[in-house]
Specification:
Blueprint (H helix, E strand, L loop, with lengths): L1 H17 L31 E9 L5 E11 L4 E6 L2 E6 L7 E3 L2 E6 L3 E8 L6 E9 L2 E3 L9 E11 L6 H5 E10 L3 E5 L4 E5 L2 E8 L6 E8 L8 E6 L9 H8 L1 H72 L12 H39 L7 H9 L6 H61 L3 H76 L1 H16 L17 E10 L23 H10 L3
Parallel strand pairs: 1-17
Antiparallel strand pairs: 1-2, 2-7, 3-6, 4-7, 5-6, 8-9, 8-10, 10-15, 11-14, 11-16, 12-15, 13-14, 16-17
Helix pairs in contact: 1-10, 4-5, 4-8, 5-7, 7-8
Amino acid sequence: MKFKRFITVCTIIAVVCMVPLGLSTAAPAENELPANSAESAAATAPTKNKDEVVYATLTPSGNVEAIYVVNHFSAAQGGDITDYGDYASVVNLTNTNDLAVNGDSVSFVAGEDNFYYQGNMAGKDLPWIFNISYYLNGEQMAPQDIAGADGALEIKISSSPNDLVDSTFYDHYMLQITVTLDTEKCSNIEAPDGTSASAGKNKTIAFTVLPENNADFALTADVRDFTMTGISIAAVPYSMSMDFPDTDEQFSDLEKLPDAISELNDGVGELDEGTMELKDGADQLSSGSAGIQSGLNQLSGNSAQLVNASAQINGALSQIATSLAQSGIENIDLSAVSQLPAGLTAWAGGLRELSGGLTTFQGQFAPAYAALDATIAKIPDPAISETDIQTLYAMTDPSQYGTVGALVDNYGAAQEVKGTYASVKDAFDGVGTVIDSTTAAIGTMADTLDTTATQISSSLSQLDGLSQLSELVSGLSTLSANYSSFHSGLVAYTGGVQTLASNYSSFHSGITSFDNGVTELSDGVGELYDGTNTLNDEIADLPDTLQSEIDNMKDQYMPADFDAVSFASSKNTDTGFVQFVMQTEPIEEPDAPEADAPDTDNDEPETFWDRLVALFSGEK
């Protein structure tokens, strides 16, 4: 495979560059240590300056094919070293000396320079289990079956921890998975979770997996004659350089927000109490206004009857006076006249009942109006500007914009209510005056009727002879003349009552609408107060909550301190650095079979170069 051949060639070149000029001397026998180190190897402790680079080849589906570890030692003063690893075989990459292998221990003598050796792992377990699947036109296919294919391609890459390997790597290592696609064969490349970059005709898509997380990525492309280089996966200890701001300084202003929200909540609470009082006053006003309207309607409804009765009295008095004047005193029938005082007295009683009803209503209206006036006065004059409102929005979490909007709307509604009340306040102030003048007029009418009835009754009871009868006739004539004027005034008064009742109906409708609006305002402010209460509770601990969230993010995204461990063996307790380089085999069309090379006789002796090439190529 090309990747293996590439690694082999690179390794041979590295070895050749490090081989000293005396390379042509015979190499020590396999597993044989130099004489001066054989006795001390067993007692040597692991070095403190060891790094490991773990190379792994994977199938296109993510299964492990082979793992080998390049071990690097920095021996400042040289010496005997014993290393450990579950290796199937080892290769000295520094010089031609053999490595002493005894079970899982590898012993050698390191010079003062860097020392490298390769250990080919006996097992095939990595810290991660990879699964790579391929779909062509929506159908899952084996990797080898999509080589050279055309259609809509989807590649899904996932990973999970391998419980058979030390969890340190899964918990502290970051994975970078890189897919390289040839743009001459792949178009419309989409990778929502990846970072794309162009490199010549190729496009690379890099996916990053943080420690303690699993890969779950997908990319799509339209392909033609599809082939792909291997997917490379690198794993290194997670590190990030990030300076976090001084949250104490940043939160110093934020800590003022809970106090501001608390003051806002208190203000809304007072507004809620005020609107409830306003609602009570508006309810009383609406109820009292309904009583006024009912009384006016009743008075207006009875006006026709009152006018008719007065007209009958006026007609009767006029008829009596006329009859008396025409018939003469000797022909007068006083039986009809005797019934007049009782009628006038009954009429006066009805008027007093009406006056009493108006007085009772005035007693109910006055405290209701006083309560309403006091409640309206509690609504503050406009003191919040548009700039103040925008500042409030800026200080508020966007999730609470609805609550702030409701507060602003209700504040506007409260100002509108106060403006409306100011426009009708003069009418409210005049209600008492109207009632007082009306009751006074009705009382005067009743008193006049009582006086008239008394005078008529007294006159009838004191009649003595024609001289007194003559006086009665004269009095009735005067009464008839005066009553005509009274009746005209009564007609004008009842006409005014009917007009007042008609106009008051519209006024009462306005009061009812006002009462309904105040009720809605009170309900809205109540809901707003519930919202500001909730907001106040949530904002109270906002700085501490934010600090806790920042600390959690630091724990999640900032690298945690950890002690490096060896991948090769847990016995290597002083490993300094371990990294992983993994790559899948490429997806490519099979090569055409090559013709067999002709056999040639070669009697030349095998050189070290031949042996080295044979070692890395697997030839024997």
